[in-house]
Amino acid sequence: MAEAFEVANLTFTYQGRPRPALSHFNLVLDEGRTLGVLGHSGAGKSTLLAALAAVVPAVKRGTLSGAVRVLGESLAGLKPRDVAGTVAFVFEDFDAALVATTVEDEVAFGPRYLGVPAPEIPARVEGALAACGLDALRGRRVESLSGGQKQRLAVAAALAADAQLLLFDEATTDLDPAGKAALKRIVGELGERGRTAVAADNDATQALGLDEVALLGQGELVAYGAPHETLADAELTARAGVAPLPYLDFFERRGSDYRLRPSVKIKKRAYENEAAYAVPGPPTVVADALTFTYPGGVTALADFDLTIYEGDFIALVGENGGGKTTFAKAVAGLLEPSAGTVRIRGRAPRSLPAKRRAQTVGYLFQNPDHQIFRATVREEIAFGPRQLGLPAEEIGRRVAGAMAAVGLIGLEEEDPFAMPKGDRQRVALASVLAMEPELLVMDEPTTGLDRAEVASLMEAVVALNRRGTTVIFITHAMDVAARYARRVAVVAGGRVLAEGKPRRILADAELLSRAGLEPPLAARLARELGLDAVTGEELACALQNDGVQNRP
What total of structural domains would you count in the chain? Predict the structure, then answer.
């Protein structure tokens, strides 16, 4: 079988960076195979894919040594346009790669650029739209799509190119569970069609069903092999900063099937005291019949009703395009409702003076590039506090605290725009945290972060919440919602379908399915065992495996 690509002794150091992103890296993959690339943030996943698409060093500058060959041809001296007919790349920053006005035109752009005969293009477009669940959106303007819908569109555009090698760089970050499942199916089908697919991700479960998995750590290849065996090795996954296949202490897993190990004993128990989740305080945000229609006629919110209380910690979950981000922007005063109202302590957000609004609502955008704009990390984080006229000592305290909270210490003088997306996300969040707002609104705050970064970030937010900050966070990570939220609101079709305690909402499979969701894995496994656990920690507490240290 011919080789799809060969990476030989590859070392690449980004311009201005002290250490290489990849160091003496070697990897070979045969044609028609599917490969999952996993590793912590900064492990080199994106750099590997960029090298395979000739993006480095042609576009992202730096020093490269070693060799990269695709379908037997060296990429030395080539640019992305030179390999466009052979390699299709779904960038981590997918939003910036979209170029057309409408969904249909975006998917057709690649085949037209590659000179595909005009009669063949409609069939390619139809197939790609159908595969990504975008049939009904073909006439929509791209700017009217949600982040998750744009990510699906980027995948559809890559499929329409019908390249031999398809690269997906963190292509599940903004997708709802249905979208993640669809992408996993698409990657598997590419292999069946003789195409080669490489998918980089932080989620080990996305690699299940692929032919191989490569674990990366600190720019080196940690392990390479069959997904089930490789990802079941806790030592290897720890070196790569990746969560191993979940719950292997308690269950045997093959594919999506879990069976409780014979040695495991079930300890039925009650969990948290529901009184601890009582409503914290008076209403802070009240949305009453809130309606918003974008130019072009797309109604994102329709009679949206929700009350959020002082000191609340509420997760908004739901399908891509359901209205979550639109609601968050209305709360932040970035959008004026078409009908109905949204109030913060009785006042419309846009009625607040700009400085007062900045102190009241801190908003983290879904895409960090819509937020950051300064030349260094330190300048970016200090910008907001400076606009408040705070003394230098107070600004320094806030900047240092925000950087420590999200793990940016030591990167003060880095250029944010030269950082990986996960790092840019942390910079954007730190700039919001430095404002110490009364209400923190976060749109998909954990996208692009590895498990250690997710834990660090969310614990920092929990600490703010305990000091009185009200938190609204939008997420597709159901396990994150289960672990950290005090309340969960399920959003679909521009409305709130239900809201309540995580234990009730996140265990309701029928309710979640109406919003394109499913319960967290821990909740699904617990239900099969007659337990009411919803988090990994709770499930671990309810199970006892003799002679094995329990871990979620």
Answer: 3
